[in-house]
Structures are given as structure tokens and as C-alpha cells.
Amino acid sequence: xxxxxxxxxxxxxxxxxxxxxxxxxxxxxxxxxxxxxxxxxxxxxxxxxxxxxxxxxxxxxxxxxxxxxxxxxxxxxxxxxxxxxxxxxxxxxxxxxxxxxxxxxxxxxxxxxxxxxxxxxxxxxxxxxxxxxxxxxxxxxxxxxxxxxxxxxxxxxxxxxxxxxxxxxxxxxxxxxxxxxxxxxxxxxxxxxxxxxxxxxxxxxxxxxx
Amino acid sequence: xxxxxxxxxxxxxxxxxxxxxxxxxxxxxxxxxxxxxxxxxxxxxxxxxxxxxxxxxxxxxxxxxxxxxxxxxxxxxxxxxxxxxxxxxxxxxxxxxxxxxxxxxxxxxxxxxxxxxxxxxxxxxxxxxxxxxxxxxxxxxxxxxxxxxxxxxxxxxxxxxxxxxxxxxxxxxxxxxxxxxxxxxxxxxxxxxxxxxxxxxxxxxxxxxx
DNA sequence: TCTCTTCCTGACCGTATGGTCAGATTGCAG
DNA sequence: CTGCAATCTGACCATACGGTCAGGAAGAGA
Lengths: 210, 210
Prior knowledge:
TetR/AcrR family transcriptional regulator (chains A, B); 0% strand; 76% helix; Homeodomain-like_sf (chains A, B); mainly alpha; DNA-binding; HTH_TetR (chains A, B); DNA-binding (chains A, B)
């Protein structure tokens, strides 16, 4: 029953508690939505008194904003895998892999993001209109270049991107449905690989690079 | 300023008000989520006093359950288009058309459904485990039959279904994102047709029937 | 017309929520 | 060791929420 006597540094305390709160918040927001989530529940999950949450994050909305921002960063960086690619098959295949991994490893964050967009993006509309718009334009141009060079079938780049987002994100957002249809059990390692293979197979053949 | 003097029949009153409330509820639940929606706001949108809502629907959860049930019916019936098909291309193409039309015509309902599943299906878990499971098994078997007959490429039927759901539903659930990336304007008639065509093109080629 | 049932609604209630604050505790610089 | 600033938290507050209810208004059947 001896307690760790080591005193904590100020920096450590702040970093640790912020992380603790953000993790708890992500989970609770994912499960209950912004409106359904309560600061009390987040505090309980984080193992801190509610008043302590308000010490680190002034309002519920500020905390929520941070959670959404975090997942948005992860989401955006998945595109790096698409850039260095030699071929369309390689680039888009890697992007699918990356986004499927996000769905698997950050299901809560994915749900929070989906929920935010679904409700009209009340707090991250500016992101959509700047960062995301630029990002999308860039990738659409890259895909269009591939098409112009005759390296893949002529499809609408925008709708291809939507399909990639939708399909990969589905495994996080509708994970509960998938789990139910899987006999109530989460997908196994092998099943995740099969899912990735299926998605890549259909889409890559669909754009004529298989 | 003359008011319509015709007295309303009992049946009419009930049917009209229930419809009015359900429509308002669908909209509000879609915009705010279950937790974020308030009976007061639904009442305002419906143009009725809040107490009147509780006369027709005892609790918020009962009202929500009805909204979810309604969209689930529509969602399930979209599969009828898949059944009478002569070829896989025809059947799956028609299913994509039907589900894209649902996304377009019932975006609010689609969002409510997505939100419900995303949050672990707290009120319609039984549907998932019975109706949806049977439905899915049936369609997967149909697709598998097509594959066995060599009429389409050998893909995992389950993951193909997920891709169909994800891609079509995306145009409703992430409609705000799509709208933002479309310069802030909703998709036009022509753009919706282009979207349908793109989705069908990629998927149908992806399963080797184009 | 009269009676019964359905429909309607303003006022009200208990509770839970987001947020505040004064004061205790604790790491840290000098 | 001392003083300061950062961290912590139980108690508290105003508000908004879901839901109730008594009593009035209005069709329906005789």
C-alpha cells in the first residue's frame, strides 16, 4: 500500500491531466454526443473532480473543440501516405490502409468528428472552409493528373475521395452495427485485414488499376 | 384575414399533429442529436405548445423511437430494388440509386439513424439483431450466389454491402461537408446525378460487371 | 340540445447541468 | 525557509430540462 512518493513536476502535472481529460472527453463525446455528454461524467471517467476540469478547460465547448481538433490533425496527416506514391494503386492503396488504421485505432475520435460534421460543423466550420478545402483541392488535382496521364480510369476525383472517406470511416462510425452483424464480437485481426483487402480490391479495380 | 372555419375531424387532428411532431422531431434530432434536442425546440418547430407533445408522445425517448423506426423502414425497403434484378449490375445499380435517393430526400432521417448506430444503438439494438441481421444475411447470400455463378468478381459480400451503405449514406450524413467543399451550395440536380453515376461506375467496375 | 370523450395548454415541479468561487494544498524560485 | 504562483476541490448558484396536472375548449354521438 505504499504510494509513489515522487513529487510531480508542474509540467508533468499539466500534461498528464490535460491528456487524461482529453482522453476521457473523447470517449464520452463519442458515446453520448456533445449534447448528451456531461462534464460530470467526463470527470468521473478521467478520475478527477469536476471543478478540476474547468480549471484546465474553461467551458465544455472549449474542451470539445480541442477533442475535435486533435482528431482532425490525425485525419489530415493520413494523406501523407498518398503523396510519395509512385503509382495510383500504391498511393490510394496506402491511403486506404492509413484511414482504415485510423478507424481501428481511433474509433472514438472518428465518431466525434462524424458527429460534429453531421450536426453542421458548428465549431469547426472554419477548418472545413480553409484547411480541408485546400487539402481536398490538392488531392483532387493529384488524382486528376493521374487520370490525364492515363494511369487510372477517368473518374470524378471529388467523388472518389468521398468514397474513400465514407468507406474507411464507416468501420469506425458504424462499428457497432458491424460488430452486431459479426455475432456481437469485434472484428479480429484477420477480419480487419480482410476488410482492408476487400475495400482496396473493389476500389482499386473500380478505378482501373488492378 | 378570414380563418378556415371547417371543423376538423378527430382522425384528421390526430394524424396531422402526429405527422407535424414527427417531422419537427426528425429535424431537431438530426441537427442536435438525442441529447442536444429539447422537447421545447421540437414543439417550437412543430408550432405547438410543449405540453401538447407530451399528449401525443409520453416521453422524449418514445418520440425518438418512432422517428428512428420510421427511417429504418424506409432504409430497409430500399432493398426491394435489388431483389427482382436480372443481373448483378442491374440489382446493385438499382440499390445504389435507391439509397442515394434516400440520402437526398431524407437527409435528416439518415442522420438520426447514423447517430443512433454511432452511439451504440441504445434504443434499436433489437432491430439490429433481428430484422437487420436477417436482411443482411439474405442479401449476402444473393450476392454470393451471383459470385458462384460467375456473374461478378469474387468479393466478400459483407464488405461489399458495407461499402454500399457507407458510400450512399455519406451523401446524407456528411452532406454539410460536401456542401462546404461545393462552394457552400447544395448539390444541384445535375451534381446529384453525377454523384450517382460516379458511385455506380466505380463500384460496378470494382465488382467486375462493367 | 346535452353528455361524454378527446384534445389542448399555462403553470408548475423536481432534478441535473454548466459553471463559479473561496479557500486549502503544493510545487518552485530566491 | 519564505513567499508566490500554480493546482486543486467541496460547496454553491442560476438556469434549463423532461415531465405533470388541473382545468378549459371542442368534436362526437344521442
